Amino acid sequence: MLLRHSAETPRRGFFSGYLEDEAATAHAWRGGWFHTGDTVRQDADGMLHFVDRKKNIIRRSGENIAAAEVEAVLQAHPLVRQVAVLAVPDETREEEVLACVVLHEGAVPEAAALTLFEHCHAELAYFKAPGWVWFTDSLPTTGTQKIQKHQVFPPGTDPRGLPGMLDLRARKKRGGG
Known about the structure:
Elements: E1 2-3, H1 22-28, E2 34-35, E3 38-42, E4 48-53, E5 57-60, E6 63-66, H2 67-75, E7 80-90, E8 94-103, H3 109-123, E9 132-135, E10 166-167
Parallel strand pairs: 8-9
Antiparallel strand pairs: 1-2, 3-4, 5-6, 7-8, 9-10
């Protein structure tokens, strides 16, 4: 979503800039438009609907996948206590969907992985189902319990090689898992 007041005075009524970060301000105001970082869609009546933050969009084989959409489907499953969906690199498809899942007590991770994949495959377009699943005992959160996705893995880490990472990419097929 891009915003401005008008072509003549694009910044009128907006904030003056990011505190002590002129580069971020210039980046946000490219081409005379304020780049919000939000992805939205417009319906037939002209109403705008929030999809997700642009940084939470996974780009897989030319398709845009909203991490929030996959998270909502996974969170609705009774096995899932908490979930974060992230993009991971993919040599063939640019990015792939990674689901980091905290299971409810008593759930068996290996069986849960297939169950959750099939659940996603039934509820979402086939390409949106997680290609990678990783189970953990907890996810980092803020004081208000918002998941801190940028803290799930250490900076510079390729999570695909971590112990316990399950590769389900071969199951992602159009028309059936």
